[in-house]
Amino acid sequence: MIIVVVAAKEDHQDRDCFAVAVLSHGDDNGILFGTDKTITVDNLLKPIKDCASLAGKPKICIFQVGCVTTGHCSLLFCTM
């Protein structure tokens, strides 16, 4: 989460897009498990969505999540 917050505070006016890739464990409800706490995908991406210098620019998010309830991995690709 700290990396996403730091990235959102940067000035991205000279950049064309933003991309992030996350490999983690999680569940089927959009919750990611970290070493110290859980976080929803929406809360993780909120600083990026709110970043003024990224407004109107493509934002690419890739999540590879190992589901603890089923044991299967999921790949989620989203754009904002």
Features:
single chain; 80 residues; alpha+beta; Rossmann fold; 5-stranded mixed β-sheet; 5 strands; 21% helix; 39% strand
Description:
A hairpin with a 4-residue loop joins strand 2 and strand 3. The relative contact order is 0.27. The chain has one domain (2-79): Rossmann fold (3-Layer(aba) Sandwich), CATH 3.40.50.1460. It is built from two helices and five strands, in the order H-E-E-E-H-E-E. By secondary structure, the protein is α+β, with helices and mostly antiparallel strands. The protein is elongated, with a radius of gyration of 13 Å. The longest helix is centred in the middle third of the chain and has 9 residues, at 41-49. Strands 3-2-1-4-5 form a five-stranded mixed sheet.
Ordered list of secondary-structure elements with their pairings:
Elements: H1 2-9, E1 18-26, E2 31-33, E3 38-40, H2 41-49, E4 59-67, E5 73-79
Parallel strand pairs: 1-4
Antiparallel strand pairs: 1-2, 2-3, 4-5
Helix pairs in contact: 1-2
